[in-house]
Structure prediction request, 185 residues.
Amino acid sequence: MKSNVSIPDLLRWRFEQAQAAAPPPPQMSRLLERSRPWWATWPDQFQALVEHLRGLKAEYGHAMAEARPFPGSHPVPSLIVLKEKVNELEAFARILHFNIRGNRFRLRFQLESSLATPPEHLEVNFIGENAPEPLLSAPAVLSVNHEYSMDVELPEQLTTAWGSLKVTDRMPFRFILRSNTDVNG
Prediction:
């Protein structure tokens, strides 16, 4: 069976078909709303999480009521916020690797939490003592044994501020860890 339709005509026809089936483009206001970070979209929820997080005390050494598996490092107070969960989960993160080279920041941490199955991906929000919004927000990926790793470019002010920190130092931040997937905990 032979056809007299040329390739350019066929491509033009297919392009018109795709245009007709495509949804309308989103409005500019909707695009701007989607590009805003979650803490700017839900400022009240963010403030409540920050207040809860600042209320967590990271006991270390003799002050601990029960021994935590954090030899050699200070625990980082953390809140885990899962999709579809009303309450956040309190947790502590143990910093396993902390490295800044140039403006690249590599971090590996182990999460001590009550989650039976931790989420594979987390958005790690670094919360400073008096910062009105996160100092840094970056993705972390689960490896093994509740360990997460991240590799991100740091802003210059954080490179300078955190450049001399060692893995055994008390960290100048806390974590709000967000997941877009719901996990049975």
